[in-house]
Specification:
- It is a single chain.
- This protein is mainly α and 496 residues long.
- The protein has a single domain, classed as MFS general substrate transporter like domains (Growth Hormone, Chain: A, Up-down Bundle).
- Helix 1 packs antiparallel against helix 4 and helix 2 runs antiparallel to helix 8.
- 51% of the residues are buried.
- This is MFS transporter.
- It is a multi-pass membrane protein.
- Its main location: membrane.
Length: 496
Amino acid sequence: MTSPLSPPAAPSPAVRWTPRLWGTLLVLCAAMFLDALDVSMVGVALPSIGSELDLSTSTLQWIVSGYILGYGGLLLLGGRTADLLGRRQVFLVALGVFAVASLLGGLVDSGPLLIASRFIKGLSAAFTAPAGLSIITTTFAEGPLRNRALSIYTTCAATGFSMGLVLSGLLTEASWRLTMLLPAPIALLALLVGLKLLPRSEREKDHNGYDIPGAVLGTASMLLLVFTVVQAPEAGWASARTLLSFLAVAVMLTVFVFVERRSAGPLIRLGVLRSGNQIRAQLGAMAFFGSYVGFQFLVTLYMQSLLGWSALHTALAFLPAGALVAVSSTKVGSIVDRFGTQRLIATGFALMVVGYALFLRISLDPGYAAVILPSMLLIGAACALVFPSLNIQATNGVDDHEQGMVSGLLNTSVQVGGAIFLAVVTAVVTAHTPAHATPQAVLDSYRPGLVVVTFIALAGLLITLPGLRTQRAQQSIVVAKSTVPEAEAERVALRD
């Protein structure tokens, strides 16, 4: 029997959503919202930061890249740490570090200190993101209950990313420091509520020690990969430094795989990646986020540099996509229950391909309602379908003691995909931009980048298609085996 103040136990699908359960989900959603908010909000503030702190363009880049480096580089370690040390403990400690780093970021008067605070925030997010996702997957039973929770959770991430653009436009008008300080009180409030509501999680029992060599190799290889990709456009993709860095990453990953295969308690159990559904989820996450980040980068440049729109005007142009995602948050789970993840992911990628392709119609004097809005609505619908479905597909069928590991792996795919494809899109646009270009020439240089973005989304669609055949085969087996209990049959059919 539990006391009124004890954390909620893992509910069964039949349990009604209590206020305490909603509160638990709200705390986790707040952390994910802040992670996404922080990624998008800082971009609009960069010119003001550079002006006040007298920073060069290359230094300003590291205010963004520092966060990505810490986030993308340590996600694998963060996910496994949550499994070994306890998800609740890791989540709350990392959230506290995030709040302190946010406060420091808004108070410093030095470029290097600001970059350091951003790196620490990215590092802490690398622990809160997989810990938070694994708390959901171990608190909400697999099936309709978890699908609904994950749809709300991932929607908060998409909403945070969209709202970050709008909020940064408003806050930067007063001071760029407000964009850095805003996450601090929200994170502190989530931390205090989380201390009361988050379910206590046991550390993994009977684990075979800590995979220190794997942790060092995995973290170092991800840090170097993200660093190399971020620096490649500046250093040159064919430069000796870039090529040697990629070679070093390949060597470290090869050694990492060798170590993991022999480790009694690996950082990543490679057997998880033998599942076709898991592979499709990881590759789909890379294509999904990589294409969207590249698209947003180009559209922001187009609207502000070519059309002369203000930061707030640009943010409002993206708002329909974010609003569509927010409105659909409570509905996606039931759609997944009915149609399965593979169909929704395929449909979403198809919508993305069409949305990106339609944006190729842009000109120096576009009509928003006729040219830009259709793409925003299609991409918003795609985000509402794809992102929750990828999270559900990646975590379904995974044992509780490995949920943190899989969550870290999925978030790593998202961040690495975003870093790689953004760098590729930037390189393509730069290669097609002539010196002293006219506005029309600049616009023409954006089109190849948009074509690359479209093909990245198309690749995501092609990766998903084999899963549709697998889903149909599973459903046929379930129908044929009449001895399978109905509830279990539904689980098999949906575990795609």
